[in-house]
């Protein structure tokens, strides 16, 4: 039974890298009948924003990954951290460091000149003299002076850090605020985490956190450090490539299940399977199979998956989703037919919305390129004759096949080629030349509305500029 968490810092919106980490954590907890917890790491008061917290919670709501406990906020847990700082001080496992800013800068400069990594030199580790005046101390934890800090990473394998790679790092600033590596370890321990899945940008924090676990006698969880998502060129994912707010994907017309399916495959696989329902993800996901190397973002694939889900979710669900885009198809008497027709080609809900309004809405203008190409001198006469056919069959044209059965003979009898009739009708009904089949459009609109639109187009002479 795995207890996992996602622990974002609310310094900005939630982006897809974060959401993928959360998804992996969520899947692993749920698969093992464990718990998934959401913890907001908001100790950095200057960089946090309430809007970012809201945006993160909103994104989790949208994708439907609920926390199994009340969302925790580190900013509300400062008393707990203070207690553990006191405990470490009392036990001699942490100490006050009075090093001034100038001293620290001088040390850094010296280390840099000697091509050494910046590292605190432990000068106050065993200090028992009189503290210098005017300096509020920071608290540093005593890290091991020799040996190695080891752990078995679920993705990266055996990790080992020499003691000299971890200095006595600050666990509380001079204003008393505890630091990131300290509070993460405390929270993960107190919240009973068994498995910590996070981005591999945190890999070098892990030995520090292990120092905290060990100083406090906490059990060290299992770590899984997940490689980054890169852009298709193998570089860091930028906003333009897709590293945008998760909610932006909603605005762009993606379904949450498509996004989750896309993310689960970015860094994990099960043979060459591409489509995963939530149930399948839960059945098959295992963090031990997470790829060791970075993955590449692929927008085409996301679109393809989204198209798949748009075709496969219920029309009722599509109606609900489309409301967000102002599309009120749910009240339309032929909504099933319209949706069946339009969802075949749509890769986003925005495209679906466009395709629907293309048919449902009265055309505001007529594509003049199409008009020039397809509206000839004898076209008007042909359209008038065709509307007569529609009028004669007004009560029987319900399905595309009904329309087809009266239209094909008309084409034959008049010796027409298909585009000669279809394109002028398409232009009359939708304004454009690329809508679905004429039989489908006429069936959806009904004979009456089709006749009306064709008549309007004729009356307006297709907005043709008269010469
Ligand atoms: N709060 C950290 C971040 O947003 C994550 C900490 C962790 O997962 O251990 O990057």
Ligand types: glutamic acid
What number is the mean pLDDT?
Answer: 94
- Number of helix segments? 18
Question: Which second-level CATH architecture of the largest domain applies?
Answer: 3-Layer(aba) Sandwich
Radius of gyration: 32 Å
CATH class of the largest domain: Alpha Beta
Number of extended strands: 12
Give the low-confidence spans.
none
- CATH topology of the largest domain, which one? Rossmann fold
CATH superfamily of the largest domain: HUPs
Give the total of domains: 3
Task: Give a description of the structure.
The chain has about 475 residues and is mainly alpha-helical. It folds into 3 domains: about 1-70 and about 225-310, 3-Layer(aba) Sandwich (Rossmann fold), CATH 3.40.50.620; about 75-225, 3-Layer(aba) Sandwich (Rossmann fold), CATH 3.40.50.620; about 360-460, Arc Repressor Mutant, subunit A (Orthogonal Bundle), CATH 1.10.10.350. About 45% of the residues lie in helices and about 10% in strands. The protein is built from 18 helices and 12 strands. It has helices spanning about 15-30, 50-65, 80-90, 100-115, 180-190, 205-215, 245-250, 255-265, 280-285, 300-310, 315-325, 335-345, 350-360, 370-375, 380-390, 400-415, 420-430, 440-460; strands spanning about 5, 35-40, 70-75, 95, 140, 150-155, 155-160, 170, 195-200, 220-225, 230, 295. The strands form 5 sheets. Strands 1-2-3 form a 3-stranded parallel sheet, with helices on one face. A hairpin with a 3-residue loop joins strand 6 and strand 7. Helix 17 crosses helix 18. It is elongated. The chain starts with a strand and ends in an 8-residue tail after the last helix. The mean pLDDT is about 95. The structure holds glutamic acid. Glutamic acid binds near residues 7, 8, 9, 41 and 202.
């Amino acid at each position: 039974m795995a207890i996992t968490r996602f622990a974002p810092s609310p310094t900005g919106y939630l982006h897809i890298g974060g959401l993928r980490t959360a998804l992996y954590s969520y899947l692993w907890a749920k698969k093992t009948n464990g718990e998934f917890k959401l913890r907001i790491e908001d100790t950095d008061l200057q960089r946090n924003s309430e809007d970012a917290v809201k945006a993160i919670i909103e994104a989790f709501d949208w994708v439907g990954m609920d926390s199994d406990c009340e969302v925790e906020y580190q900013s509300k847990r400062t008393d707990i951290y203070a207690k553990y700082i006191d405990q470490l001080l009392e036990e001699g496992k942490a100490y006050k460091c009075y090093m001034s800013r100038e001293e620290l800068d001088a040390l850094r400069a010296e280390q840099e000149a000697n091509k050494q990594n910046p590292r605190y030199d432990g000068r106050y580790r065993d200090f028992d003299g009189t503290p210098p005046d005017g300096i509020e101390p920071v608290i540093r934890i005593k890290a091991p002076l020799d040996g190695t800090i080891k752990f078995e990473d679920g993705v990266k394998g055996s990790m080992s850090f020499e003691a000299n790679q971890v200095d006595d790092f600050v666990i509380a600033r001079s204003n008393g605020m505890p630091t990131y590596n300290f509070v993460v370890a405390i929270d993960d321990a107190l919240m009973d985490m068994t498995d910590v899945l996070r981005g591999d940008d945190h890999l070098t924090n892990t030995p520090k956190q292990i120092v905290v676990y060990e100083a406090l006698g906490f059990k060290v969880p299992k770590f899984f450090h997940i490689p980054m998502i890169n852009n298709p060129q193998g570089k860091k994912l930028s906003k333009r490539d897709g590293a945008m707010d998760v909610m932006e994907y909603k605005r762009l017309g993606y379904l949450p299940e498509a996004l989750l399916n896309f993310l689960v495959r970015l860094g994990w696989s099960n043979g060459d399977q591409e489509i995963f329902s939530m149930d399948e993800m839960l059945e098959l996901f295992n963090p031990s199979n997470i790829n060791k190397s970075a993955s590449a973002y692929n927008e085409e694939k996301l679109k393809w998956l989204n198209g798949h889900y748009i075709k496969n979710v219920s029309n009722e669900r599509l109606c609900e989703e489309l409301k967000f885009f102002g599309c009120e198809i749910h009240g339309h008497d032929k909504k099933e037919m319209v949706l069946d027709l339009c969802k075949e080609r749509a890769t986003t809900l925005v495209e679906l919305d466009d395709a629907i309004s293309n048919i449902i809405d009265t055309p505001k203008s007529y594509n003049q390129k199409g008009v020039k190409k397809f509206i000839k001198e004898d076209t008007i006469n042909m359209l008038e004759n065709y509307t007569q056919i529609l009028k004669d069959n007004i009560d029987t044209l319900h399905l595309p096949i009904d329309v087809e059965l009266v239209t094909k003979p008309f084409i034959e009898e008049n010796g027409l080629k298909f585009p000669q009739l279809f394109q002028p009708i398409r232009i009359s009904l939708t304004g454009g030349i690329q809508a679905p089949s004429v039989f489908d459009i006429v069936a959806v609109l009904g004979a009456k509305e089709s006749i009306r639109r064709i008549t309007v187009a004729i009356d307006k002479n297709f907005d043709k500029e008269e010469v």
